[in-house]
Amino acid sequence: MTIGKRLADRVAIITGGAAGIGAAIAHAFCDEGARVVVADRDEDSAKRTASTLGANAIAMAVDVTNEDQVRRVVADAVARFGRIDILVNNAGIMRKAYVKDMTEQLWNAVVDVNLKATFLCSKAVLPAMIERRSGRIINIASIAGKIGEPTASAYSAAKWGVIGFTRSLALEVAQHEILVNAICPGPIPTALGQQGWRDGAQVEGVDLDRIMARVGSRSPLRRLGTVEQVAKMALFIASDDCDFTTGSAFNVDGGIVMN
Ligand SMILES: NC(=O)c1ccc[n+]([C@@H]2O[C@H](COP(=O)([O-])OP(=O)(O)OC[C@H]3O[C@@H](n4cnc5c(N)ncnc54)[C@H](O)[C@@H]3O)[C@@H](O)[C@H]2O)c1
To answer: Is 74 part of any domain?
Structure first.
Protein backbone atom coordinates (compact mmCIF):
# COMPACT_ATOMS: atom_id res chain seq x y z
CA MET A 1 0.00 0.00 0.00
CA THR A 2 1.63 3.24 -1.10
CA ILE A 3 -1.17 5.79 -0.63
CA GLY A 4 -0.02 8.76 1.46
CA LYS A 5 3.65 7.90 1.12
CA ARG A 6 6.06 10.58 -0.01
CA LEU A 7 7.35 8.71 -3.08
CA ALA A 8 4.22 6.68 -3.83
CA ASP A 9 4.74 4.72 -7.06
CA ARG A 10 7.77 6.78 -8.16
CA VAL A 11 10.51 4.85 -9.92
CA ALA A 12 14.10 5.48 -8.83
CA ILE A 13 17.47 4.27 -10.08
CA ILE A 14 20.17 4.42 -7.42
CA THR A 15 23.69 3.83 -8.68
CA GLY A 16 26.04 2.25 -6.16
CA GLY A 17 22.85 1.22 -4.37
CA ALA A 18 24.25 -2.06 -3.09
CA ALA A 19 26.08 -0.65 -0.08
CA GLY A 20 26.70 2.34 2.17
CA ILE A 21 24.88 5.58 1.41
CA GLY A 22 23.22 4.18 -1.75
CA ALA A 23 21.70 1.23 0.14
CA ALA A 24 20.39 3.60 2.83
CA ILE A 25 18.78 5.76 0.12
CA ALA A 26 17.24 2.65 -1.45
CA HIS A 27 15.74 1.71 1.94
CA ALA A 28 14.42 5.21 2.58
CA PHE A 29 12.86 5.47 -0.89
CA CYS A 30 11.24 2.00 -0.69
CA ASP A 31 9.84 2.81 2.76
CA GLU A 32 8.15 5.82 1.17
CA GLY A 33 6.53 3.79 -1.61
CA ALA A 34 9.08 4.04 -4.44
CA ARG A 35 10.02 1.23 -6.79
CA VAL A 36 13.79 1.09 -6.78
CA VAL A 37 16.49 -0.20 -9.12
CA VAL A 38 19.62 -1.03 -7.11
CA ALA A 39 22.24 -0.52 -9.84
CA ASP A 40 25.74 -1.55 -8.87
CA ARG A 41 28.83 -3.16 -10.36
CA ASP A 42 28.80 -5.63 -7.43
CA GLU A 43 25.91 -7.78 -8.63
CA ASP A 44 25.82 -10.17 -5.65
CA SER A 45 25.76 -7.34 -3.18
CA ALA A 46 23.09 -5.50 -5.23
CA LYS A 47 20.92 -8.63 -5.19
CA ARG A 48 21.37 -9.02 -1.43
CA THR A 49 20.38 -5.40 -0.82
CA ALA A 50 17.40 -5.57 -3.19
CA SER A 51 16.20 -8.76 -1.47
CA THR A 52 15.97 -6.89 1.84
CA LEU A 53 13.73 -4.26 0.25
CA GLY A 54 10.83 -6.47 -0.82
CA ALA A 55 8.96 -6.77 -4.08
CA ASN A 56 9.41 -3.12 -5.04
CA ALA A 57 13.18 -3.37 -5.57
CA ILE A 58 15.25 -5.09 -8.22
CA ALA A 59 19.01 -5.38 -8.66
CA MET A 60 20.78 -4.60 -11.92
CA ALA A 61 24.48 -5.08 -12.62
CA VAL A 62 26.20 -2.08 -14.18
CA ASP A 63 29.57 -0.44 -14.37
CA VAL A 64 28.48 3.21 -14.44
CA THR A 65 31.62 4.23 -16.34
CA ASN A 66 30.49 2.17 -19.34
CA GLU A 67 27.95 4.03 -21.52
CA ASP A 68 26.53 0.89 -23.17
CA GLN A 69 25.89 -0.72 -19.78
CA VAL A 70 24.32 2.48 -18.44
CA ARG A 71 21.98 2.73 -21.44
CA ARG A 72 20.99 -0.92 -21.04
CA VAL A 73 20.13 -0.50 -17.35
CA VAL A 74 18.01 2.56 -18.05
CA ALA A 75 16.21 0.79 -20.93
CA ASP A 76 15.61 -2.27 -18.73
CA ALA A 77 14.28 -0.09 -15.91
CA VAL A 78 11.87 1.70 -18.27
CA ALA A 79 10.77 -1.64 -19.75
CA ARG A 80 10.15 -3.02 -16.26
CA PHE A 81 8.54 -0.04 -14.53
CA GLY A 82 7.34 2.16 -17.42
CA ARG A 83 9.21 5.31 -16.43
CA ILE A 84 12.00 6.84 -14.36
CA ASP A 85 11.17 9.60 -11.91
CA ILE A 86 14.37 9.81 -9.88
CA LEU A 87 18.04 9.15 -10.61
CA VAL A 88 20.50 9.13 -7.73
CA ASN A 89 24.08 9.33 -9.01
CA ASN A 90 25.70 7.83 -5.93
CA ALA A 91 28.34 5.32 -7.13
CA GLY A 92 31.77 6.50 -6.12
CA ILE A 93 35.30 5.47 -5.29
CA MET A 94 38.07 7.18 -3.34
CA ARG A 95 41.80 6.64 -3.91
CA LYS A 96 44.51 8.59 -2.12
CA ALA A 97 47.88 9.81 -3.39
CA TYR A 98 49.94 12.97 -3.38
CA VAL A 99 49.84 14.61 -6.82
CA LYS A 100 53.60 14.14 -7.26
CA ASP A 101 53.10 10.36 -6.91
CA MET A 102 49.68 10.01 -8.54
CA THR A 103 49.43 7.81 -11.61
CA GLU A 104 47.32 8.76 -14.59
CA GLN A 105 45.47 5.50 -14.06
CA LEU A 106 44.45 6.45 -10.50
CA TRP A 107 43.35 9.92 -11.64
CA ASN A 108 41.25 8.47 -14.48
CA ALA A 109 39.64 5.79 -12.30
CA VAL A 110 38.53 8.31 -9.67
CA VAL A 111 37.31 10.92 -12.15
CA ASP A 112 35.51 8.33 -14.30
CA VAL A 113 33.41 6.81 -11.50
CA ASN A 114 32.69 10.00 -9.59
CA LEU A 115 32.27 12.49 -12.45
CA LYS A 116 32.02 10.92 -15.90
CA ALA A 117 29.45 8.39 -14.72
CA THR A 118 27.28 11.20 -13.34
CA PHE A 119 27.17 12.63 -16.86
CA LEU A 120 26.55 9.23 -18.51
CA CYS A 121 23.70 8.23 -16.19
CA SER A 122 22.07 11.66 -16.33
CA LYS A 123 22.21 11.69 -20.12
CA ALA A 124 20.67 8.22 -20.28
CA VAL A 125 17.60 9.09 -18.13
CA LEU A 126 16.90 12.51 -19.64
CA PRO A 127 14.82 11.42 -22.68
CA ALA A 128 12.34 9.56 -20.43
CA MET A 129 12.16 12.48 -17.98
CA ILE A 130 11.83 15.14 -20.69
CA GLU A 131 9.00 13.19 -22.32
CA ARG A 132 7.07 13.17 -19.03
CA ARG A 133 8.05 16.79 -18.17
CA SER A 134 9.08 15.63 -14.73
CA GLY A 135 12.13 14.25 -12.96
CA ARG A 136 14.64 14.53 -10.15
CA ILE A 137 18.37 13.98 -10.48
CA ILE A 138 20.30 13.83 -7.21
CA ASN A 139 24.08 13.80 -7.42
CA ILE A 140 26.02 12.59 -4.39
CA ALA A 141 29.01 14.93 -4.36
CA SER A 142 31.00 15.53 -1.14
CA ILE A 143 32.29 18.35 1.01
CA ALA A 144 35.52 17.51 -0.86
CA GLY A 145 33.74 19.27 -3.74
CA LYS A 146 33.74 22.52 -1.78
CA ILE A 147 37.12 22.40 -0.01
CA GLY A 148 40.48 20.93 -0.90
CA GLU A 149 41.97 17.89 0.78
CA PRO A 150 45.63 16.79 0.58
CA THR A 151 46.08 13.32 -1.01
CA ALA A 152 42.51 13.49 -2.39
CA SER A 153 42.99 15.87 -5.32
CA ALA A 154 41.46 13.57 -7.94
CA TYR A 155 38.44 12.89 -5.72
CA SER A 156 38.10 16.54 -4.78
CA ALA A 157 38.40 17.67 -8.42
CA ALA A 158 35.78 15.12 -9.46
CA LYS A 159 33.37 16.24 -6.74
CA TRP A 160 33.86 19.94 -7.62
CA GLY A 161 33.06 18.80 -11.15
CA VAL A 162 29.89 17.09 -9.96
CA ILE A 163 28.70 20.34 -8.38
CA GLY A 164 29.48 22.30 -11.57
CA PHE A 165 27.69 19.65 -13.63
CA THR A 166 24.70 19.85 -11.27
CA ARG A 167 24.38 23.61 -11.77
CA SER A 168 24.79 23.48 -15.55
CA LEU A 169 22.36 20.60 -16.02
CA ALA A 170 19.85 22.28 -13.68
CA LEU A 171 19.87 25.30 -16.01
CA GLU A 172 19.49 23.12 -19.11
CA VAL A 173 16.53 21.07 -17.94
CA ALA A 174 14.55 23.48 -15.75
CA GLN A 175 12.36 24.16 -18.82
CA HIS A 176 11.30 20.49 -18.66
CA GLU A 177 10.45 20.62 -14.92
CA ILE A 178 13.43 18.39 -14.09
CA LEU A 179 15.15 19.42 -10.84
CA VAL A 180 18.85 18.67 -10.40
CA ASN A 181 20.52 18.96 -6.99
CA ALA A 182 23.58 17.62 -5.20
CA ILE A 183 24.28 16.42 -1.67
CA CYS A 184 27.66 16.97 -0.03
CA PRO A 185 28.15 14.47 2.79
CA GLY A 186 30.88 14.87 5.36
CA PRO A 187 32.83 11.91 6.77
CA ILE A 188 30.76 8.74 7.13
CA PRO A 189 32.20 5.33 8.14
CA THR A 190 31.16 3.32 5.06
CA ALA A 191 33.54 1.01 3.16
CA LEU A 192 34.63 4.01 1.07
CA GLY A 193 35.11 6.26 4.10
CA GLN A 194 37.07 3.69 6.08
CA GLN A 195 39.24 2.75 3.11
CA GLY A 196 39.95 6.43 2.54
CA TRP A 197 41.10 6.91 6.14
CA ARG A 198 43.30 3.78 6.01
CA ASP A 199 44.83 4.86 2.69
CA GLY A 200 45.30 8.39 4.03
CA ALA A 201 47.23 7.07 7.03
CA GLN A 202 49.44 5.00 4.75
CA VAL A 203 50.08 7.77 2.21
CA GLU A 204 50.80 10.36 4.91
CA GLY A 205 52.85 7.83 6.94
CA VAL A 206 50.91 8.43 10.18
CA ASP A 207 48.87 6.20 12.51
CA LEU A 208 45.22 5.56 11.67
CA ASP A 209 44.38 6.80 15.20
CA ARG A 210 45.81 10.19 14.32
CA ILE A 211 43.77 10.36 11.12
CA MET A 212 40.61 9.35 13.01
CA ALA A 213 41.20 11.98 15.71
CA ARG A 214 41.52 14.58 12.97
CA VAL A 215 38.41 13.36 11.14
CA GLY A 216 36.36 13.20 14.36
CA SER A 217 37.24 16.75 15.38
CA ARG A 218 36.58 18.35 11.99
CA SER A 219 32.90 18.94 12.59
CA PRO A 220 31.64 21.49 15.14
CA LEU A 221 29.27 18.69 16.20
CA ARG A 222 32.32 16.51 16.97
CA ARG A 223 30.94 13.35 15.40
CA LEU A 224 30.88 11.42 12.14
CA GLY A 225 27.78 11.28 10.00
CA THR A 226 25.54 8.31 9.24
CA VAL A 227 24.23 6.94 5.97
CA GLU A 228 20.68 7.48 7.24
CA GLN A 229 21.28 11.23 7.59
CA VAL A 230 22.25 11.44 3.91
CA ALA A 231 19.28 9.25 2.93
CA LYS A 232 16.89 11.60 4.72
CA MET A 233 18.26 14.54 2.71
CA ALA A 234 17.95 12.53 -0.54
CA LEU A 235 14.36 11.66 0.36
CA PHE A 236 13.54 15.32 0.96
CA ILE A 237 15.08 16.39 -2.38
CA ALA A 238 13.29 13.58 -4.24
CA SER A 239 9.90 14.36 -2.72
CA ASP A 240 7.25 16.99 -3.41
CA ASP A 241 8.41 18.73 -0.21
CA CYS A 242 11.30 20.07 -2.31
CA ASP A 243 9.74 21.42 -5.50
CA PHE A 244 11.27 24.90 -5.90
CA THR A 245 14.98 24.12 -5.52
CA THR A 246 17.35 23.25 -8.34
CA GLY A 247 21.10 23.59 -8.87
CA SER A 248 21.80 23.47 -5.13
CA ALA A 249 24.39 21.43 -3.22
CA PHE A 250 23.16 20.56 0.28
CA ASN A 251 25.75 19.83 2.97
CA VAL A 252 25.13 16.91 5.35
CA ASP A 253 28.36 17.34 7.25
CA GLY A 254 27.80 18.46 10.83
CA GLY A 255 28.82 21.99 9.92
CA ILE A 256 32.32 21.41 8.52
CA VAL A 257 31.51 23.49 5.44
CA MET A 258 29.00 26.27 5.80
CA ASN A 259 28.51 27.35 2.20
N1 LIG B 1 31.51 7.80 3.08
C2 LIG B 1 31.87 9.07 3.06
O3 LIG B 1 32.56 9.55 3.98
C4 LIG B 1 31.44 9.95 1.92
C5 LIG B 1 31.58 11.34 2.08
C6 LIG B 1 31.22 12.18 1.04
C7 LIG B 1 30.71 11.64 -0.13
N8 LIG B 1 30.58 10.31 -0.27
C9 LIG B 1 30.06 9.81 -1.55
O10 LIG B 1 28.93 9.01 -1.32
C11 LIG B 1 28.78 8.06 -2.40
C12 LIG B 1 28.59 6.68 -1.80
O13 LIG B 1 29.73 6.34 -1.07
P14 LIG B 1 29.73 5.31 0.15
O15 LIG B 1 30.51 5.93 1.22
O16 LIG B 1 28.36 4.82 0.40
O17 LIG B 1 30.66 4.16 -0.50
P18 LIG B 1 30.55 2.57 -0.49
O19 LIG B 1 31.90 2.10 -0.89
O20 LIG B 1 29.95 2.07 0.77
O21 LIG B 1 29.50 2.28 -1.67
C22 LIG B 1 29.78 2.65 -3.00
C23 LIG B 1 29.02 1.71 -3.93
O24 LIG B 1 29.32 2.14 -5.27
C25 LIG B 1 29.53 0.98 -6.05
N26 LIG B 1 30.37 1.31 -7.20
C27 LIG B 1 31.68 1.74 -7.18
N28 LIG B 1 32.11 1.87 -8.44
C29 LIG B 1 31.08 1.55 -9.27
C30 LIG B 1 30.94 1.50 -10.68
N31 LIG B 1 31.95 1.79 -11.52
N32 LIG B 1 29.73 1.13 -11.19
C33 LIG B 1 28.71 0.82 -10.36
N34 LIG B 1 28.80 0.83 -9.02
C35 LIG B 1 29.98 1.20 -8.48
C36 LIG B 1 30.23 0.00 -5.09
O37 LIG B 1 30.14 -1.34 -5.56
C38 LIG B 1 29.46 0.25 -3.80
O39 LIG B 1 28.32 -0.59 -3.70
C40 LIG B 1 30.05 8.21 -3.23
O41 LIG B 1 29.78 9.00 -4.38
C42 LIG B 1 31.01 8.92 -2.31
O43 LIG B 1 31.99 9.64 -3.01
C44 LIG B 1 30.92 9.45 0.72
So the answer is: yes
